[in-house]
Amino acid sequence: MERARPHRNPPNRRSAPRLPRHGGQPVVAGRALPCGSGRLPQDFPRRLDRLKRASGLTWDQFGEALGMETKQVLRWRKGAEPRGGPYHELIVLAGRIPGGLAILLGEDFPGAGV
């Protein structure tokens, strides 16, 4: 007699939502992101300094709020670009600081003035 194999349900997989593109630029809330190439603004280190000042945190506290070592955040001040999870955490933190998204991404970013 042949044994029946146990039935395994395939894992539920959801692909990450993809941003619609307009002219090669990612679009959020119907508007193209200000950094059309997907790169951060050239003045990102200055924007990061302004965001840190607006937060009222020290660099150590700022890094801790992002869940990373201070030396990584200080690398961003020297021109390194945050990517992936750290970039996401930076956007989340900026959204919690009054005017933070406008400081980090520009005044014309959708939702920055909220």
Kindly name the structural category.
mainly alpha
Strand order in the sheet with the most strands: 1-2-3
Strand residue percentage: 5-15%
Low-confidence residue ranges? 13-22
N-to-C span:
68 Å
> Mean of the pLDDT scores?
75
Number of helices: 5
The total of beta strands comes to: 3
Q: What fraction, in percent, of the residue positions are helical?
A: 40-55%
Work out the radius of gyration: 20 Å
Task: Please outline the major beta sheet.
Answer: 3 strands, antiparallel
Backbone shape: globular
What sequence of helices (H) and strands (E) makes up the elements?
A: EEEHHHHH
Q: Can you walk me through this structure?
A:
The protein has 114 residues and is mainly alpha-helical. Helix content is 41%, strand content 7%. The chain is built from 5 helices and 3 strands, in the order βββααααα. Strands 1-2-3 form a 3-stranded antiparallel sheet, with no helix packed on it. Mean pLDDT is 75; it is low at 13-22.
Give the structure's gist in a few sentences.
The chain is mainly alpha-helical.
Question: What tags apply to this protein structure?
Answer:
5 helices; globular; 3-stranded antiparallel β-sheet; 114 residues; mainly alpha; single chain; 41% helix
